[in-house]
Amino acid sequence: MDNRQISSLAIGVLGALALGSAAPAMARKEAAAPVASAAMQAAVAGMPQSAEVQSFYSRWQGPAWFSDGGHAATELAGILRRAPLDGFASGPALAGQVEQAAKTAATGSKADAAAAERILSAAWVAYVEAIRQPSRNVTYGYATLAPKAAKADEVLKAAAAAPSLRQYLTDVSAINPMYAELRDAAWKQAQASGGAGVPDRRILANLDRLRSLPAASGRFALVNVATQRLEMYENGRQVDSMKVIVGTNQYETPMIASVIYYTTFNPYWNVPDHLVRKTIVPNVLTQGQAYLKSRGYQVMSDWSANATVVPNDQVDWKAVADGRVKIRVRQLPGPQNSMGNMKFSFANGLDIYLHDTPSKALFAKDQRNLSNGCVRLEDARRFGRWLLGREPVAPSQEPEQFVQLPQGVPIYVTYLTARHVNGQIAYTPDIYGWDTRGSS
């Protein structure tokens, strides 16, 4: 079984299926179902039973797998042959079952054809369940962004209703354009080399990450931490991109799927605790409180929205230095503020966001994993213009001015070290080592 530990449905959906007619349940209640041939029974012997698929066929007519001359069945077998790239290692074995069932159905009785219909349906449900598993180690800011779990009745109803079953299989298995391009290139490469062996773990890791991205409709922003770039998409087409700065190897930028709903102009910067102790406290102890004032730092009473400013001389700076006391320090808006002029927040529970920066010279570096985890933008104003659909202008000079977007824009922070480029697979350095140590 593959390492995604799919449920018992996906482990063995082809099982010892009831081999009666595929007609609606009401018709079956009036007459005994014919028995499938020994050859068809042998094709499914020893397989675990799928109660979900059985239940569906007791109430509904399933997809017409053979009504198009067998093209849909052939497409399904092909999808299952390459399914190890989709994280579904049992695919090739199921492809053999599908092909045998289709062959027997073509020369057998109506009962054989009915049994074959169920076998193909069960194989399709198993595959869809596998590809709808959430990507590993992705934090979903909203549950609606996670892949929807496959339910046998929903999967089979959708397939049965499709105008072209063959095309429907192709569309569902594509998942999204970037995913389909990389997987198809990897499959073509594997076929050219004989098709043997286990897929490259880098390809598997990247395909797993790509499964969290949306299909080809609408707008979304993608931060590729591996290449340190932000890409903007509209209806499946990249319309703009820019450099970004991401987290260091000590403070890795995590993978997130969320939605940006507003822009914050003139933001405060709440200094991370480790930077308070590493940078601010030593400078206060050597330069005095003038250091704080010169850089716009304020000590706050707590981390709440109603926190008040604490006079600097009331802080035990030595206790902060040795970790006995923790304080909240924020930086006022201005030219030195590490957030720059604007930031773009999104739900994730990890305090990660995109933001402007006054340190523009760092974008000239080839390797830009330099931040404390958040993502610094090369051109925050341009990104804000794309999000808002107009020139991004602060409503006032007051701190923390929130401006709502016309419509929420999904944001995907991911880690892609393999991409399809001009018909080939291009690899990017694995800056965090996530490919080699199995994180994805």
UniProtKB/TrEMBL annotation:
- Cleavable signal peptide: 1-27
Which pathway does this chain act in?
Cell wall biogenesis; peptidoglycan biosynthesis
Transit peptide found in the keyword field: no
In this chain the L,D-TPase catalytic domain maps to 219-414
- Organism superkingdom: Bacteria
Give the record's family classification. Answer: Belongs to the YkuD family.
Q: Supply the alphabetized keyword list.
A: Cell shape, Cell wall biogenesis/degradation, Peptidoglycan synthesis, Signal, Transferase
Any idea which residues are catalytic in this one? Answer: H355, C374
Q: Which GO MF terms does the UniProt record name? A: carboxypeptidase activity; transferase activity
One biological process term from GO is: peptidoglycan biosynthetic process
Q: Please give the organism.
A: Caenibius tardaugens NBRC 16725
Listed name of the protein: L,D-TPase catalytic domain-containing protein
